[in-house]
């Protein structure tokens, strides 16, 4: 592992020079925190598929072992039950930091993983969020926008936790010459998403499959931009492997109101699904859409899967998980 670290991290850090991809060791040892979760498990699939050795650290707070069952027994795969709030000693070349306990422990977990990256000279990628823009006064959101977050609101624990995580990441970059990357992820959906965690796409899909009304909060005119998980995973890997720190918006610019989303879910699953309006939560951002010009130009990345193409892929997975393997189409 040492030669990999030298080629991938320490030398580049110490000289400040940029080592071309071709000269880096091709297979690395990579830590994915939160790798048993929705995004993390898809990322692990891709990294293992590329021949890397992957260590997943997860406390199974929202993640599930089943998301990684396909890798059990693979000598290049290791799963450790651990809370990143506790210090951790490992030797790795890269760290994808996805574990995200509810803030403020989010901050402590990020600090520990930065400390680990510093000790071993690993490159560190933070999965931040579009929530750092809060209820944005700029539309679409560009990375240079500083955001509009209510520091004492009901959502601020998550938002401010990620903003602090970004700050820490940049401080380690500046003070310890750590190689870092920051992704600001916009709403992402796909197979293995938590069925009952209350996010809008998982709610609507599960509701339509269960023949329950789709719950639209507020007037349903607020917008979000929905990205399919495989596009995100490609973006995360391009960001990690590229030469730019970021932050980079990683999201699909296709913008939908919640009523439009409900309509796409109806078209995909059940045209007769009813809609039920519910009170919205406080401080709900009115609109959100990424400007991805920077990622396009510097990472050569852009999403390719539209909502209408990605949603059915998620629906088959939800169908199987809700009704079991042999439940037909669940109607
Ligand atoms: P997820 O909940 O499925 O995955 C998070 C994983 O981290 C889970 O497996 C969980 O068990 C694990 N975890 C939580 N606290 C931990 C701790 N203290 N120690 C170790 N493991 C811990 O969520 P996801 O959607 O896959 O999100 C992954 C990352 O991407 C998160 O950092 C999240 O903030 C970020 N993100 C996701 C979205 C999205 O739309 N899915 C949008 C913006 C940002
Ligand atoms: N840390 C860790 N694993 C390591 C190195 C550090 O979990 O391999 C933790 C460490 O316990 C500390 C945090 O990361 O809480 C920050 O470490 P750093 O060395 O940057 O700060 P210091 O310990 O000097 O305050
Ligand atoms: N939402 C909704 N019905 C639901 C769940 C969420 O209308 O059952 C709305 C919510 O008010 C918000 C949007 O969908 O405006 C996205 O919510 P989500 O929690 O998925 O993501 P975030 O708000 O973090 O972007």
TrEMBL record:
Entry EC number(s): 4.1.1.35
Enzyme class, spelled out: lyase
The superkingdom listed in its UniProt entry is: Eukaryota
Q: Which keywords appear in this protein's UniProt record, sorted alphabetically?
A: Decarboxylase, Golgi apparatus, Lyase, Membrane, NAD, Transmembrane, Transmembrane helix
GO biological process terms, alphabetically, are: D-xylose metabolic process; UDP-D-xylose biosynthetic process
Where do the coiled-coil regions begin and end? none
Q: Where is the NAD(P)-binding domain?
A: 31-312
Q: Does the keyword NAD apply?
A: yes
Family per similarity comment: Belongs to the NAD(P)-dependent epimerase/dehydratase family. UDP-glucuronic acid decarboxylase subfamily.
Its protein name is UDP-glucuronate decarboxylase
What organism is recorded for this protein? Spirodela intermedia (Intermediate duckweed)
The shown chain, on whole-protein numbering, covers: 101 to 431 of 433
């Amino acid at each position: 592992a040492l030669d990999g670290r030298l080629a991938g991290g320490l030398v580049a850090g110490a000289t400040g020079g940029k080592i071309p991809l071709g000269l880096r060791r091709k297979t690395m040892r990579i830590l994915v925190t939160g790798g048993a979760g929705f995004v993390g498990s898809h990322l692990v699939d891709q990294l293992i598929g590329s021949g890397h050795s992957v260590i997943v650290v997860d406390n199974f707070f929202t993640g599930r072992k089943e998301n990684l069952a396909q890798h059990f027994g693979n000598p290049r795969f290791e799963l450790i039950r651990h809370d990143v709030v506790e210090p951790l000693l490992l030797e790795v070349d890269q760290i994808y930091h996805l574990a995200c306990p509810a803030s403020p422990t989010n901050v402590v977990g990020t600090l520990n993983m930065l400390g680990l990256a510093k000790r071993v000279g690993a490159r560190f990628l933070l999965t931040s969020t579009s929530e750092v823009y809060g209820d944005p006064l700029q539309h679409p959101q560009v990375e240079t926008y500083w955001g509009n977050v209510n520091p004492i609101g009901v959502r601020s624990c998550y938002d401010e936790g990620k903003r602090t995580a970004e700050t820490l990441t940049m401080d380690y970059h500046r003070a310890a010459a750590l190689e870092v990357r920051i992704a600001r992820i916009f709403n992402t959906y796909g197979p293995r998403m938590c069925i009952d965690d209350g996010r809008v796409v998982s709610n609507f899909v599960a509701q339509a499959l269960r023949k329950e009304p789709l719950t639209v909060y507020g007037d349903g005119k607020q917008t979000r931009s929905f990205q399919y998980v495989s596009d995100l995973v490609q973006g995360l890997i391009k960001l990690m492997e590229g030469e730019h720190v970021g932050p980079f918006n990683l999201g699909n610019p296709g913008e939908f109101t919640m009523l439009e989303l409900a309509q796409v879910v109806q078209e995909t699953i059940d045209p007769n699904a009813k809609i039920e309006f519910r009170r919205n939560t406080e401080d709900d951002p009115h609109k959100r859409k990424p400007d991805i010009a920077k990622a396009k130009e510097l990472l050569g990345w852009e999403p390719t899967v539209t909502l209408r193409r990605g949603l059915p892929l998620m629906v088959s997975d939800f169908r199987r998980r809700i009704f079991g393997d042999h439940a037909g189409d669940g109607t």
